[in-house]
Amino acid sequence: MSSRVRASGKRREVRRNAIDASEIEDSSCHSDGASLHYEGSLTVSSDLAELVELREFEKILVGNLSNGERFETYVIYGESQKSLIELNGATAHLGKIGDRITIMNFGSYSAEEAARQQPRILVLDEKNRVARQEGIEPSLKVVGE
């Protein structure tokens, strides 16, 4: 049941946060660059972002697997087909070129929606080419296949 009865007799919808439609994961996604003088964000090649339904200017959580840093920022699209992942502005101080990072976004769902929600996961290699994927249709060609 996605709603509860309050003491006042009114129903309130219960929302659950879950990993949303996208996660770009690393062993995988490597920072290609850093732009210290940009106002902020994470640049992701638009084709990679669209595969996992990351929207431009969407809030994301980034985990740097190389140094343990975690930070929130937003996505800006970079040039398609360039396999670009770049830290900008203040976030550029939280990683360096070649760091392995995980990019996550989250959605708010009813209990029923959360039970059905399946994340789209894209794992990239050291050149930010697709190495593994889950929940993305149609399936992409994986490096080495």
Q: Number of helical runs?
A: 2
Uncertain stretches of 5 or more adjacent residues: 1-6
Main sheet specs: 9 strands, mixed
The best one-word shape is: globular
Task: Assess the beta-strand content as a share of residues.
Answer: over 45%
Read across the widest sheet, the strand sequence of neighbours is 4-8-5-7-6-9-3-10-11
User: What is the terminal-to-terminal distance?
Assistant: 44 Å
Overall mean pLDDT stands at 77
- From the 3D coordinates, which CATH architecture would you assign? Beta Barrel
SS class: mainly beta
Could you give the topology of this structure?
Elements: E1 3-5, E2 11-13, E3 15-30, E4 33-35, E5 41-45, H1 46-51, E6 59-64, E7 70-78, E8 85-88, E9 100-110, H2 111-116, E10 120-124, E11 130-134
Parallel strand pairs: 3-10, 4-8, 5-7
Antiparallel strand pairs: 1-2, 3-9, 5-8, 6-7, 6-9, 10-11
Structure description:
It is a single chain. With 145 residues, the chain is mostly beta strands. It has helices at 46-51, 111-116; strands at 3-5, 11-13, 15-30, 33-35, 41-45, 59-64, 70-78, 85-88, 100-110, 120-124, 130-134. Strands 4-8-5-7-6-9-3-10-11 form a nine-stranded mixed β-sheet. It has a two-stranded antiparallel sheet with strand order 1-2. The longest helix is centred in the middle third of the chain and has 6 residues, at 46-51. The termini are far apart.
